[in-house]
Amino acid sequence: MDEKRTNVRWKIVLPVRYVGLNKHTESAARTQDISISGARLAMVERHRAGDRLGIMLDFSQVSNKPICIDADVVWQKVSCDLNEECNYLTGVVFRKISECGKRDLVQCVHESHPEEFRRHWWDGV
């Protein structure tokens, strides 16, 4: 399968809080990986492609404010590899993330996970 992503994905686990903008639900999840254009989340709730989410990424170890991003669900599948509380792997694409938001995200990844940042940033160079 050809990789279609244009942005580096970092395999880091972060706590995530989100609100469903279609269903008006609020819940918690965690990242499996993340880039400046989207993320793969381990979630409790089932969502459909096209569902809109308001996401708060918790980089509390390096920043006292979460990064808030609107996202669209692209895909979701059941995963037996996750623990009991998170049953769904979910791909989301970030919507209208500002250049400032992208910089904040990259800075937080760099500061909180420097080895992962360097390893994936320079892969293939």
List the helices and strands and how they pair.
Layout: E1 15-20, E2 26-34, E3 38-43, E4 52-57, E5 67-78, E6 88-95, H1 99-112, H2 114-121
Antiparallel strand pairs: 1-2, 1-4, 2-3, 3-6, 4-5, 5-6
Structure description:
This protein is an alpha+beta fold. Helices cover about 20% and strands about 40% of the residues. It is built from two helices and six strands, in the order ββββββαα. The protein has helices at about 100-110, 115-120, and strands at about 15-20, 25-35, 40-45, 50-55, 65-80, 90-95. Strands 1-2-3-6-5-4 form a six-stranded antiparallel barrel. A hairpin with a 3-residue loop joins β2 (about 25-35) and β3 (about 40-45). α1 (about 100-110) crosses α2 (about 115-120). The two termini are about 20 Å apart.
Report the total helices.
Answer: 2
* Gyration radius, rounded: 14 Å
Sheet with most strands: 6 strands, antiparallel, barrel
Q: Span from first to last CA?
A: 21 Å
On the 0-100 scale, what is the average pLDDT? 82
Overview features:
single chain; 125 residues; Thrombin, subunit H; six-stranded antiparallel beta barrel; 2 helices; globular
Summarize this structure briefly.
With 125 residues, the protein is an alpha+beta fold. The chain has helices at residues 99-112, 114-121, and strands at 15-20, 26-34, 38-43, 52-57, 67-78, 88-95.
